[in-house]
Specification:
Structural class: mainly alpha
Distance between the termini: 45 Å
EC number: 2.7.8.26
Keywords: Cell membrane, Cobalamin biosynthesis, Magnesium, Membrane, Transferase, Transmembrane, Transmembrane helix
Largest sheet: none
Order of helices and strands: HHHHHHHHHHH
Function: Joins adenosylcobinamide-GDP and alpha-ribazole to generate adenosylcobalamin (Ado-cobalamin). Also synthesizes adenosylcobalamin 5'-phosphate from adenosylcobinamide-GDP and alpha-ribazole 5'-phosphate.
Number of helices: 11
Shape: globular
Catalytic activity: alpha-ribazole 5'-phosphate + adenosylcob(III)inamide-GDP = adenosylcob(III)alamin 5'-phosphate + GMP + H(+); alpha-ribazole + adenosylcob(III)inamide-GDP = adenosylcob(III)alamin + GMP + H(+)
Family: Belongs to the CobS family.
Helix content: over 70%
Number of domains: 1
């Protein structure tokens, strides 16, 4: 696949945008498309920031944030949120590794997942509402959160073994490897976004360094969590890592920008 085709595949994989792909898609194509997951996150973040700014001209910020979060869920099909809820259902309701995997592949939503999803959405709302005191900080935070959270989650691929069989997975195929080129492009994308926020005087060097450290710690904790619970990761785990990283970024921005 050419690079444009890989980018289109990344968009199709992570969103509900109706893009037609030419030719069959293999597991290797999915693995190679991971290099553009952060780019897709950047596009989502920019769209969310534009929507926030436009609606803030005539609506209260509380309403604006709810509508923006709703639009992002429609755009992504709640892809990562679904994984986050499944992880909490599986880890909370299962005793053995197989029990946890069986619960995670079940399409029904349990109590653990429901409560976790409610807390997740409320946390996003409250953190974004706090950031609305400074519109520039809010818009910057949204772009950073959507981009860097996908860098953090995607970079977990290859750090742990993949433990779910394709025949048991609700969403297939799933990326199972991240080669050096893909990892480099992923990190460069995140680095470019951070550098642009610095050039626009939205962040300082110290804020960039501490944000990277925050994400590194968050990813490390997710890695230990998944290893302890499953001995590896599944697609749901990557979705959960993305959501946890997103919350970590918003929390950091509230502390740092306000």
């Amino acid at each position: 696949m050419r690079q444009l085709s890989l980018f289109k595949l990344a968009v199709v994989f992570l969103t509900r945008v109706p893009i037609k792909l030419s030719g069959p898609v293999s597991d290797e194509h999915i693995n190679r498309a991971t290099r553009y997951f952060a780019c897709v996150g950047l596009c989502i973040g920019v769209l969310m920031a534009l929507l926030l700014w436009a609606m803030s001209l005539f609506l209260p910020f509380g309403v604006v944030i709810v509508f923006t979060l709703g639009a992002s869920l429609l755009l992504t099909g709640a892809f990562h949120e679904d994984g986050f809820a499944d992880v909490w259902d599986g880890f909370g309701g299962g005793w053995s590794r197989q029990q946890k995997l069986d619960i995670m592949k079940d399409s029904r939503l349990g109590t653990y997942g429901s409560v976790a999803l409610l807390i997740l959405l409320l946390s996003k709302f409250q953190l974004m509402l706090a950031l609305s005191e400074n519109l520039s900080a809010l818009l910057c935070s949204v772009v950073l959160a959507q981009t860097l959270s996908r860098v953090s989650a995607t970079s977990l691929i290859g750090k742990l073994p993949y433990v779910q069989l394709d025949s048991q997975s609700k969403v297939k195929p799933i990326a199972k490897s991240l080669n050096a080129q893909c990892r480099t492009i992923l990190y460069v994308t995140g680095g470019v976004v951070l550098f642009l926020t610095y050039l626009l005087s939205l962040t300082s060097i110290w804020q960039i360094v501490t944000l990277i450290a925050t994400l590194w710690v968050t990813r490390g904790l997710c890695q230990l969590w998944f290893k302890h619970q499953l001995g590896g990761y599944t697609g749901d785990c990557l979705g959960a890592a993305q959501q946890v990283s997103e919350i970590a970024i918003y929390t950091y921005c509230v502390v740092s920008f306000l």
